[in-house]
Amino acid sequence: MLTFVTPEQALHAPADEFFRGQRVPCLENPTRARFVEDALRAHGHALRPPTVDSAPLLAQVHAPRYLDFLRGAWDEWLALDAANAQLQPFPSVWPVRTLRSDVEPANFVARLGLYSMDNGSPMAAGTWSAAKAAADAAASAAQALLAGERAVFCATRPPGHHAGPDFMGGYCFINNAAVAAQALRNGGAARVALLDVDYHHGNGTQAIFYERADVLFASIHGDPRTEYPFYLGHADETGAGAGQGFNLNLPLPAGSTAAVWFDALEHALARIARHGADALVVSLGLDTFAGDPISTFQLQADDFTRLGQRLAQAGLPTAFILEGGYAAAELGHNAAQVLQGFES
Ligand code: SP5
Ligand code: ZN
């Protein structure tokens, strides 16, 4: 399968994240992409750099002031103190209920909070370069589908599905899947289906398309009553305005088995078939794997082959975008299983 990879991913390498008040090594790290690249290369897939500049698309799915902030964030951080080069910025204050988000504070950390949903999106010197390259890959994947390719994989990081119109979150900065969906729409696909199979609800993607009927969002994920991102992903979120009925959330209890998960997949695919989509974008989180360190679903490597097979049966031009998956050493194999199943 044609696969886009980005060397810039290695430049997004924040050392630590927070966990229970302590700093711990960041789970979303460059080794993830390396494991995926190595496995796909070993399976004979063609690895290519992106060919499309996603800049015009970014402005269609994210707010200009958020993109400006993200592009300049590291330089602003350094401008506070040259010694910050060895440190990591984290937000410490957020504009929650009753507080104003329309006026941008001048203070850098205050703006970091304004543009964040959590403190779980550590940044580094190369975060913008890496995130932009991943978005370029998503745009390139869409272009390849529009040119007649059957399926494309983006073996990219950082992931994107928690990033909303104007905020980062959950290791995500730019919503790559949304970029791919928008690029497909711009290129002539009248209807696009976006299926999110990451363990965590794709709150950012849902938010971006919530009032749109042209992009159907369907997601299978851990019940937000107990699982991150907690504040979105319930079954009663069905879309709004023109988008009413074009958002399908299938939350499953923590610990769900593969049997339960594949029942939900059938439900999602039935809705997608009814949408009459011209193309499918899959937010491919592999943190549904039983061995994932932060998730609880029970899928095994063979289940990823089955997932690939079942998605191929949908019969749509398909762009796979890597999202989460933190059992890094098994990530490459699990990704390769999806591609192998799809092509079998
Ligand atoms: C794209 C994606 O899968 N994002 C998931 C974000 C989940 N963030 C909350 C969990 C953070 C736990 N990290 C602490 C690791 C301790 N070993
Ligand atoms: Zn996830």
From TrEMBL:
Zinc keyword on record: yes
Cofactor: Zn(2+)
Domain Histone deacetylase: 28-340
Pfam families: Hist_deacetyl
Keyword annotations: Hydrolase, Metal-binding, Zinc
PANTHER family: HISTONE DEACETYLASE 8, HISTONE DEACETYLASE HDAC1-RELATED
Family statement: Belongs to the histone deacetylase family.
Protein name, per record: Histone deacetylase family protein
